[in-house]
Design a protein that fits this description.
Elements lengths: L3 E4 H30 L8 H26 E4 L15 E6 L5 E7 L10 E3 L3 H6 L7 E6 L2 E11 L4
Parallel strand pairs: 1-2, 4-5
Antiparallel strand pairs: 3-4, 3-7, 6-7
Helix pairs in contact: 1-2
């Protein structure tokens, strides 16, 4: 089985969602299906069909999360020693060489990526370009608007 990198925070978020789905969402939908069955003819019962569809979604999400957790290689960035190189879990400050603007990203697993929160996937073009590089290095990243050059200004490990 292919191991997928995931931060400790990402794994905890998935475990929390899984617990909520199993302890709240699943019992609630089972109750809703039982109530809808009590309303009579199932062939024309929209409540019943909607509840069954929701049940399918919940069960699918439970299986998806269980699979992700089973194949996850959980990495706690706080436990890694900073070698000066960009690694999975690192927080990287980059400066766009053309626009002189700076951005800060944490490199995380695919399921944790959220650009609005400053978290990019380890498989993203920027992350692939900077992993293994050091402060002061300049990397070229192919972007939809053309290739952009970024300087690695700082590399650090997050506190949590």
């Amino acid at each position: 089985m292919k191991r997928t990198p995931m931060t400790l925070r990402g794994a905890e978020a998935l475990r929390s969602e899984l617990k909520r789905l199993k302890s709240e969402a699943r019992p609630n939908i089972i109750k809703a299906i039982a109530e809808a069955r009590g309303h009579g003819d199932l062939s024309e019962n929209a409540e019943y069909h909607a509840a069954r569809e929701q049940q399918g979604f919940i069960e699918g999400r439970i299986k998806e999360i269980e699979h992700k957790l089973a194949s996850a290689e959980v990495i706690d960035p706080a436990q890694l020693t900073l070698s000066g190189r960009v690694v999975f879990g690192a927080v990287v400050e980059l400066e766009d060489q053309a626009a002189s603007t700076r951005v800060i990203y944490q490199i995380v697993g695919e399921d944790e990526a959220d650009i609005r929160q400053g978290r990019i996937s380890v498989t993203s073009p920027i992350a692939r370009a900077v992993v293994g590089k050091e402060e002061g290095d300049v990397v070229d990243v192919a972007a939809p608007g053309g290739t952009r050059s970024w300087e690695i200004v700082a590399v650090r490990m997050p506190a949590c």
